[in-house]
Amino acid sequence: MSADNTRTDEYDLIVLGGGPVGENVADRAVQGGLTAIIVESELVGGECSYWACMPSKALLRSAQALRAAQHVKGAAEAVTGKLDVRAVFERRDSFTSNWSDDGQVKWLDSAGIDLARGHGRLTGEREVTVTDADGGTRVLHARHAVAISTGSDAVIPPIDGLREASPWTSREATSAEELPDSLAVIGGGVVAVEMATAYAALGSTVTLIARGELLASMEPFAGERVAAGLRELGVDVRTGTGTGSVHRGDDGVTVTLDDGSTVVATEVLAATGRSPRSGDIGLEVAGLEPGRWIETDDTLRVPGSDWLYAVGDVNGRVLLTHQGKYQARAAGDVIVARAKDDTVDDGAWGRHVATADHSAVPQVTFSFPEVASVGLTEKAARDAGRAVQVVDYDLGGVAGASLYEDGFDGQARLVIDTDRDVVIGATFVGPEVAELVQTATVAIVGEVPIARLWHAVPSYPTVSEVWLRLLEGYGRQSA
């Protein structure tokens, strides 16, 4: 302890941010024999555990289960009630541990990872100063590395009056304790369609306002089918129009659209993207500009700093928890390797790189219907100069799908690189198609030749039989 009451400690690795990404970086480092400390100013477990992945999917699951029962004759006749909104919220709360991180802190302790509560800033090379809630400071020195895993924040776009109207972001939408009578959702991406799905199913009157089409980065049929599904749930879907202004009055929020129409709702949700949480963490020390995405190489190290890493959302590569954890495993392992002067496996698909971020990112949108995708869309593949063939199939025509749900409606697509005869993209849309995406991910990452995929026989009768139908379709097109 120094004379000015500033405590100084040394670790092999300092991690800024205690979400799933930071936890995984630290855990891999400790498993490799290093010492590590996490610095966290909020809840250990991060956005995913308390305001994103877990609570949002908990809000969606009850309605999904009810709908599944209602679409199977025999089970449908047994379902006579409606969703219990309070029970849904209580189940959601159980997955967030009522916004307590006691369990996560215990896990850190069991994993041999230290924790510093407070706001961490880079104050020198391999140095982080932590300021706690009482203003006390603690200086941490890293023998080998500092990993920034501070995540991202929801963007509130510069729409006239929006910020003054105290809009919901994803945090408020996933943690609300009361169901609003009506909700206006601004945005057309994953958060927008998932929260529109959830609140419409729970009983709110929902209007979704998107400047473009829904899920614009995916295959066009995905957004079209989700828009139709939302309308089936009673959502007023307005695409192709922006939001001009927002005003909160005594009677709620009035949203004025660019086309001159208005929407009046109890609450308004801004779901228009994320920004890096990098504004006040001392990036100047490393010659970086605060508030920007932090560029890294494929080992997640910041160019020009052999000691600094940026992992997860904050580097802007892929803003998905599972990809952040994938990056974290690579980063933690490479930090250990470099600390021990071991060989660094940084070639394509090496254990110390995040190669999959470029071409094999799986994602599930838990909307109605679900969208599961991985790899390149047809447009992205063609824009990249790939020679491709696209194969579509009606999921409702698969025997396992018709058994799974009466009137099963969905669509599957493969994007195939015809020069190499391998799958480079896949999209599935339909009831609970999330479990189909891992097979496609393995096919893409493994670059499994189509000739070999023919021997991966799907069990009958399952929805996975769509793979056989897709390969047959490719064979007919190629004949």
UniProtKB/TrEMBL annotation:
Cofactor list: FAD
Keyword NAD set for record: yes
Keywords: FAD, Flavoprotein, NAD
One Pfam family in the UniProt entry: Pyr_redox_dim
Pyridine nucleotide-disulphide oxidoreductase dimerisation domain location: 361-467
All residue ranges annotated as the FAD/NAD(P)-binding domain in the record: 11-325
InterPro entries: Class-I_Pyr_Nuc-Dis_Oxidored, FAD/NAD-bd_sf, FAD/NAD-binding_dom, FAD/NAD-linked_Rdtase_dimer_sf, Pyr_nuc-diS_OxRdtase, Pyr_nucl-diS_OxRdtase_dimer
SUPFAM superfamilies in the cross-refs: FAD/NAD(P)-binding domain, FAD/NAD-linked reductases, dimerisation (C-terminal) domain
Similarity comment: Belongs to the class-I pyridine nucleotide-disulfide oxidoreductase family.
Protein name: NAD(P)/FAD-dependent oxidoreductase
Record lineage: Bacteria, Bacillati, Actinomycetota, Actinomycetes, Micrococcales
